[in-house]
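I would love for you to help me understand the pair of lines that follows before we discuss the fold together.
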Amino acid sequence: MISRTARLALASLVTASIALSPLSVLAADPAPVSAPEVAPAPVAAPADKADTKKVKKQAKQQKKAEKKAKKKSKKKAKAAEAAAQ
């Protein structure tokens, strides 16, 4: 039989190797580091940003309304099924 000390040592080695394996992968294949490129700021960004916000908000509201309608129809179907039984 394996002694408790040997079992603990083996468990520690396995745990350490599992914990360090992602780090060794990162060290073996580092991502290329390049200087960040500075892009010129667009002049019409605030207007576009406001438009995109409005579009996103409308899309979100439509999705929410569709979800609510679907949930309501599902609830009605379930109630009709329960009434039929």
Q: What stands out?
A: The chain has one domain: 4-26+45-84.
